[in-house]
Each structure stands twice: as C-alpha cells, then as structure tokens.
UniProtKB/TrEMBL annotation:
GO molecular function: 4 iron, 4 sulfur cluster binding; cyclase activity; iron ion binding; oxidoreductase activity; S-adenosyl-L-methionine binding
Catalytic activity from the UniProt record: [PQQ precursor protein] + S-adenosyl-L-methionine = E-Y cross-linked-[PQQ precursor protein] + 5'-deoxyadenosine + L-methionine + H(+)
Cofactor binding notes: Binds 1 [4Fe-4S] cluster. The cluster is coordinated with 3 cysteines and an exchangeable S-adenosyl-L-methionine.
Keyword Oxidoreductase tagged: yes
Residues that coordinate or bind [4Fe-4S] cluster: 28, 32, 35
Keyword vocabulary terms for this entry: 4Fe-4S, Iron, Iron-sulfur, Metal-binding, Oxidoreductase, PQQ biosynthesis, S-adenosyl-L-methionine
Lineage: Bacteria, Pseudomonadati, Pseudomonadota, Betaproteobacteria, Burkholderiales
Protein family: Belongs to the radical SAM superfamily. PqqE family.
Oligomeric form and interacting partners: Interacts with PqqD. The interaction is necessary for activity of PqqE.
Protein name, UniProt field: PqqA peptide cyclase
EC class (word): oxidoreductase
UniProt GO BP: pyrroloquinoline quinone biosynthetic process
Organism in which the protein naturally occurs: Cupriavidus taiwanensis (strain DSM 17343 / BCRC 17206 / CCUG 44338 / CIP 107171 / LMG 19424 / R1) (Ralstonia taiwanensis (strain LMG 19424))
Length: 391
C-alpha cells in the first residue's frame, strides 16, 4: 500500500508468502556453535506429523507460496522426508533441502530424486577437518565430502554453504578451493548473523574488520580467476555496516516459517521475541495467520516505526532493518536496527565489535580454546530455564 498523507504505509493486505521455510525438526546430529535454531529449542520437541506438514504445504501453495525450504535441525532425520517432498512437488513447489549431509546416503538421494527434490544445499564448517569437526563438535568432514560427491553423481547442482567467523575467515581461499575440488556450482560464504546460538557465542565468533576486508579481497580475486565455474556469494555481516538490511525482505511480506511444533514464524529467529504471541498452524489456517495475526502484522509496513526511521528517507527501502537484531542488542524489538548509523543503539553494536576484537586478541594463541557454547539438548535446557527464571 502506498504511504498515507503522513508518509507511513499502513499494514496492507499482504501479497503471497513466496518463500515457505519448513523447519521439519529441531533434532540434529551436529552441535554447531552458530546454529540458528532457538537457544531453547529443546523445550519445543513436539513435531507435526506427515499429514499436518502436507496440509501446511497445501495451504501455503493455495496462498501463492512458490519456494519451499526443507530445513531443521537436520531434515533427513524425518523418515517421511521423501513423502513430504513428493507432496510439495505435486503441488508445484520448487523444493530445496538444507542439510548437513549426515544421513544423505546414495539410496536416500535416489529416493529424493525420484520424489522430485529440486535443489540441495550442503553445509561445511571449514576447509580443514580440525576446524570443521571442532565447530560442529562431530567428526563429519570426510562424510561431507563423500556426500558432496554423491550429490553431484545424482545430477544435482552442488550448492555449498559455509558460515564464516573469525576462526575460518582466514581460510576463505582454501574453502573456495574445496568447493572447486568438489565441483560446486555455488558457494555461499555466509558471514555469521548474530542470532540464536551465534548470539550466545558472539564474542567467540566476532571477526575483525581486517579479516573481513582480507577475505573479501580473496573472494574478489577468485571471482576474477574462476569466472562462472563457481558462483561465490559473500555477504558482509550487519555489524560492520552503516545501513541495515531489509530483513526477510520486510516483515510479513515474503517469508513464512513453520517451526517443528507448528508455530508460524514471520522470521526464523522470531521465536525469542518477547510479547509476540506466535500463532500455530494446528489452531488456525495459514491464510488467517498470514493475513490477520498480530504476529505477522506487528512490523508490516512502516506505521510501527519509531524515530529516526519514521521520518527517514530510507524507511521504505530497508523497512527499519531487523527486528531480532534490534531486540538482541537494545532489548526493544521495535527499535531502529542498531546496524543503522542513525540508530540510538548503533554505539552498542560498535561496542560488541570492539569486545569481540579484544576477545580475539586475548586468545590469539589459543583461539580454539575460547569457550564456546555448543548447541546441545543439555545446553538448550539450561539456557532456556535460566531465561525463564529471568537469568
Ligand atoms: Fe533505515 Fe531507519 Fe536507519 Fe533510516 S533510520 S536508514 S529507515 S534503519
Ligand atoms: Fe528476525 Fe531479522 S532475523 S527480523
């Protein structure tokens, strides 16, 4: 809807949720220190069954959704994954499996192929066994390489993803080499976004500006050298920017997530926002959730904005940035994204970068020993209960 006389857009009847992300399970064999699942995931262990997921897909497709991400946790832990893919494909979804590779055998790949799966994204943690296995707290480095070869053998384009932070940014060149060696067509070099477990580990993961500049230069050199052989995506982290990203392409405009227990999410990290009553697909239709629920309307458009966004010329371009980042850094989900240089919270973001820099300098000799909180059920229950008790 166009801006009103005062210049702010009202929450408009939204277009379709083009992108549906189905977080099929929070279960995962890996323990990544930057996992984007909620820190208290272990308190939400319930999972929708096959029929319930199929119904979610059917409703989403009727709403106009076109792309379906199947993620987790590790979606391969769902024995009905092939059934879900087949149903989604039959509805006309473009289906994308987001996986660590654990459990992706030759037989499973053949079955997924036969069910119509379109696309696979495989995550690596690093180009070295030592760091890959350390960061995921598993021994999966060789397995991931075997799985990458299987993905190619089954005729899929190879999409590799690696989350970057100060421990592996110096390895960007060898990560690209690994992607080339495995025949990847795309490599997503995703600098850590500090939500979920990564927020808990922000001081252990935060890179320095110099590391980012060097890594980006390496990426540019490779781009010039390899051309279209492998497409390299490198996203600079918000903490080093002056303008925020248009997070989720605008709250409640494009993205609809569904958590394993059926909770509907306007963004994958929204579960930790206080005072936001999240609807559930078990008790409401997806259409009603998308169009009318308070959770999906709360930050739609620009009417909710505080100053300085409210009178800023960029408000329609970035829609005030990221609500989850605003909450984590300032304690207020409705605040201007602190990534913005005009935001009252911008100084706090700068302090976190500086604290990370000090942490990196203090531990340069023993970077691997810097205490990280790895994702595990025990840590999740502990952190979840300390939050509930106000800790
Ligand atoms: Fe965007 Fe708000 Fe910053 Fe303006 S003040 S650039 S609208 S976040
Ligand atoms: Fe939730 Fe940006 S991650 S709005």
């Amino acid at each position: 809807m166009p801006p009103n006389a005062a210049g702010w857009s009202e929450p408009a009847p939204p277009g379709p949720p083009l992108w549906l992300l189905a977080e099929l399970t929070y279960r995962c064999p890996l323990h990544c220190a930057f996992c984007s699942n909620p820190v208290d995931y272990a308190r939400h262990a319930e999972e929708l069954d096959t029929a319930q997921w199929c119904d979610v897909f059917t409703q989403a497709r009727a709403l106009g959704a076109v792309q379906l991400g199947l993620s987790g946790g590790e979606p391969l832990l769902r024995k009905d994954l092939e059934t879900l893919v087949r149903h989604a494909r039959g509805l006309g979804f473009y289906t994308n499996l987001i996986t660590s590779g654990v459990g992706l055998t030759d037989a499973r790949l053949a079955a997924l192929r036969e069910a119509g799966l379109d696309h696979i994204q495989l995550s690596f943690q690093d180009s070295t066994r030592e760091l890959n296995d350390f960061l995921s707290s598993t021994r999966t480095f060789e397995l991931k390489q075997r799985v990458a070869r299987l993905i190619k053998a089954h005729g899929y384009p190879m999409v590799m993803n690696c989350v970057l932070h100060r421990h592996n940014l110096p390895h960007v060149g060898t990560i690209i080499e690994l992607a080339l060696q495995l025949g990847a067509e795309y490599l997503e070099l995703a600098n850590t976004q500090y939500y979920g477990w990564a927020w808990e580990n922000r001081l252990a993961l935060m890179p320095t500006r110099e590391q980012l500049i060097e890594a980006e230069a390496v990426v540019r050199q490779y781009r010039a050298r390899i051309g279209r052989q492998c497409q390299l995506l490198f996203v600079v982290p918000d903490y080093f920017e002056e303008r925020p990203k248009k997070c989720m392409n605008g709250w409640g405009t494009t993205f609809l997530g569904v958590a394993p227990d059926g909770t509907a999410l306007p963004c994958h990290a929204a579960r930790m926002l206080p005072d936001l009553v999240l609807p559930n697909v078990k008790t409401g239709t997806l259409r009603d959730i998308w169009q009318h629920s308070d959770a999906f309307r709360r930050f739609r458009g620009t009417q909710w904005m505080p100053q300085p966004c409210r009178s800023c010329e960029h408000r329609e371009a970035d829609l005030g940035g990221c609500r989850c980042q605003a909450f984590l850094v300032t304690g207020d989900a409705a605040a201007t994204d602190p990534a913005c240089a005009q935001a009252p919270g911008h100084g706090r973001l700068r302090e976190i970068v500086l604290e990370g820099r000090l942490a990196a300098a203090q531990t340069a000799a023993q970077a691997r020993e810097y205490p990280m909180v790895f994702r595990s059920d025990a840590n999740s229950l502990r952190l979840g209960s300390s939050r509930n008790s106000g800790g």
